[in-house]
Amino acid sequence: MTALSVNLNKIALMRNSRLSGIPSVTEAAALALAHGADGITVHPRPDLRHIRPDDVYALAARLQVEFNIEGNPFEGAVGEYPGFLALVREVKPDQCTLVPDAQDQLTSDHGWDLQQDGARLRPIIAELKQLGIRVSLFMDADSADIERAAELGADRIELYTEAYADAYPTPERDAVFRRFVAAAQRARAVGLGVNAGHDLNRDNLALMASIPGLEEVSIGHALIADALIMGLGPAVAAYKGILRDAGPA
């Protein structure tokens, strides 16, 4: 069954709007795990808009399940932010998902261009793997570079699924979905594992999870939005149920 990693960025975003520490990121992680989440994802950024370095350290000290840290490996230190790689080297998460975000991006909106950035990424991937960290590269389904991710030493790719989510309620859904199936097949053919994430929700998750061999989905925004109505535990359980019932494409 495809694993569910719950992204806690939006919990931290709400917490940061006050000085009370409520809601607690670590308590949210514990509740999500108690209701079936397989792992926890965070995406710290230099502007500290949501997840902060202290959250990363606290989660790393408490989690007994997969911890996935996303971010741009070329981000340096800014104020209280030690830089992405410095944070990862200290924490040594189970998985590191490298994402080509610019500092001022609202959210992730594209995958890597490995023709442009592959040479810079290669030594970083090698270092992270030497530290015992699984490395995943954030990739567009239409990218010509999927096979190159394996050449650079990555263990997995994470398919950026916004195009799929946008197409899901339209007549283009099936054609777009087939592109994601093909991308996953290309990745698996060269030995890469396949994750997926971005704008997945209770409506569109089942079809995406039907891709054969899909190992993990990372879901934050929609799941936390559902949690405001349903409660965090029931929301996590609902997403797990969708993954459990998803059949092969």
What key phrases describe this protein's structure?
about 250 residues, alpha/beta, TIM Barrel, eight-stranded parallel beta barrel, 11 helices, about 15% strand
Describe this structure in words.
With 249 residues, this protein is an alpha/beta fold. It has one domain (3-244): Aldolase class I (TIM Barrel), CATH 3.20.20. It is 44% helix and 16% strand. The protein has eleven helices and eight strands. The protein has an eight-stranded parallel barrel, surrounded by six helices. α10 (221-230) crosses α11 (232-245). The protein is globular and about 45 Å long.
Concise overview:
44% of the residues lie in helices and 16% in strands. The chain is built from eleven helices and eight strands. The radius of gyration is 17 Å and the shape is globular.
Helix-and-strand structural type: alpha/beta
Task: Look at the structure and name the CATH superfamily.
Answer: Aldolase class I
- Largest pleated sheet: 8 strands, parallel, barrel
Rg, rounded, reads 17 Å
